[in-house]
């Protein structure tokens, strides 16, 4: 086990993770691992919220979905996002849209997109309330995170101003997009978080 560093300018949040090294172009290993973790909880009779990031995670998520048991039900597995690029619902740079365009199968599960057509502040607040609702249901939360070339994860680009946020979800304007992201505080609270790039990481509480 080691401590992973989330970049944030002059500050960093440290979380404990177990590391499994994989090749960046190996989809099967992380996909099978994620699918087995999700299926295991479902087989135990638990509800699962699976949070997916964009970028390199999308293809892993598509492959993992193919490996899940065909007996899924919408009240058992819900899929949503670690972070989202703000804009109109279904815009081309949306992480949700890219996931669907890559072939992610939403049959027999509940898919909860972040974008609602409201302002960025209203959208972030609504998603935070949704995560509160999930917590009240005591669902297991599994996060699939990517790791950018600048070492950022989720929507937490370097030098953002939301690293110390006490909220579950925050929004800010990045150099490329307006972003809605889960915060370090929320990421540290989820049941399992794995990062896909040159290494795969799992955090368990």
Description:
It is built from five helices and eleven strands, in the order ββαβαββαβαβββαββ. The protein is an alpha/beta fold. The protein has an eight-stranded mixed β-sheet with strand order 1-2-11-10-7-3-4-6. Helix 1 packs across helix 2. The longest helix has 17 residues. The N terminus and C terminus are likely disordered.
**What separation lies between the terminal Cα atoms?**
13 Å
Q: In total, how many beta strands?
A: 11
How is the largest sheet built, in terms of strand order? 1-2-11-10-7-3-4-6
Order of helices and strands: EEHEHEEHEHEEEHEE
Strand content: 25-35%
What overall geometry do the principal axes of the alpha carbons give?
Answer: globular
Number of helices: 5
Features:
205 residues, alpha/beta, three-stranded antiparallel β-sheet, eight-stranded mixed β-sheet, 5 helices, disordered N terminus
Briefly say what this structure is.
This protein is 27% helix and 30% strand.
Break the fold down into its secondary structure elements and pairings.
Blueprint: E1 2-8, E2 11-21, H1 28-43, E3 48-52, H2 57-67, E4 77-81, E5 83-85, H3 95-101, E6 110-111, H4 120-136, E7 140-146, E8 169-173, E9 178-182, H5 184-187, E10 192-196, E11 199-204
Parallel strand pairs: 3-4, 3-7, 4-6, 7-10
Antiparallel strand pairs: 1-2, 2-11, 5-9, 8-9, 10-11
Helix pairs in contact: 1-2
């Amino acid at each position: 086990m080691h401590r992973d560093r989330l970049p944030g300018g002059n500050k960093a949040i440290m979380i404990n993770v177990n590391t499994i090294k994989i090749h960046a172009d190996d989809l099967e290993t992380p996909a099978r691992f994620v699918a087995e973790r999700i299926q295991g909880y479902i087989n135990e009779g638990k509800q699962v919220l699976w949070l997916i990031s964009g970028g390199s995670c999308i293809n892993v998520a598509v492959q993992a979905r193919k490996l899940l048991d065909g007996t899924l039900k919408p009240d058992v597995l819900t899929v949503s996002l670690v972070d989202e690029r703000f804009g109109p619902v279904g815009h081309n740079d949306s992480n949700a849209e890219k996931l669907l365009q890559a072939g992610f199968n939403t049959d027999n599960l509940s898919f909860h997109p972040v974008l609602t057509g409201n302002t960025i502040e209203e959208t972030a607040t609504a998603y935070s309330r949704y995560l509160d609702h999930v917590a009240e249901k005591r669902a297991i939360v599994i996060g699939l995170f990517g790791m950018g070339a600048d070492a950022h994860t989720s929507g937490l680009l370097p030098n953002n101003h939301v690293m110390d946020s006490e909220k579950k979800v925050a929004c800010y304007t990045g150099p490329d997009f307006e972003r809605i992201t889960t915060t370090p505080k929320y990421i540290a609270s989820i049941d399992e978080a794995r990062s896909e790039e040159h290494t795969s990481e799992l955090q368990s509480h």
